[in-house]
Design goal:
alpha+beta
Length: 127
């Protein structure tokens, strides 16, 4: 699934509008471990764009040193493991974070994106 490396490259390029543009108009992003006050579901490309628009004001992504894609038996579903390294913009502190995301695509666009990020890192980022 070449869409995943393209999505990660857009993050590295800090092209958040391009990243959101990978979603189908009716695509969904879900965050099953989102803590209270954070969205657990975004419905539609416009909602994803609103969510990621200011990402670069918080995180300065500098490298994606790990990228592994596990293709499922369904050609439209893959699981991606990746690490992102960068700097927290507000503090200048470095960060490295690991992600596991389940992607489902249709006609070359993301229709479902389930991001199993760890909310414990929020405490570190806000400290």
């Amino acid at each position: 699934m070449d869409l995943i490396p393209r999505a990660l490259q857009l993050l590295l390029d800090k092209d958040m509008i391009g990243f959101a543009g990978l979603w189908a108009v009716d695509g969904v992003a879900e965050f099953p471990f989102a803590p209270p006050g954070w969205p657990s579901r975004l419905e539609g490309r416009a909602a994803v764009e609103d969510y990621v628009r200011d990402y670069t004001k918080t995180f300065d992504v500098r490298a994606i040193p790990k990228q592994v894609v596990h293709q499922s038996t369904d050609p439209d579903v893959a699981v991606a493991e990746f690490d992102i390294e960068g700097v927290l913009v507000a503090t200048g502190e470095p960060y490295r974070y690991s992600y596991i995301v389940v992607f489902t695509t249709r006609d070359g666009e993301i229709v479902s994106y389930r991001d199993y990020w760890n909310p414990i890192h929020l405490q570190e980022w806000r400290a």
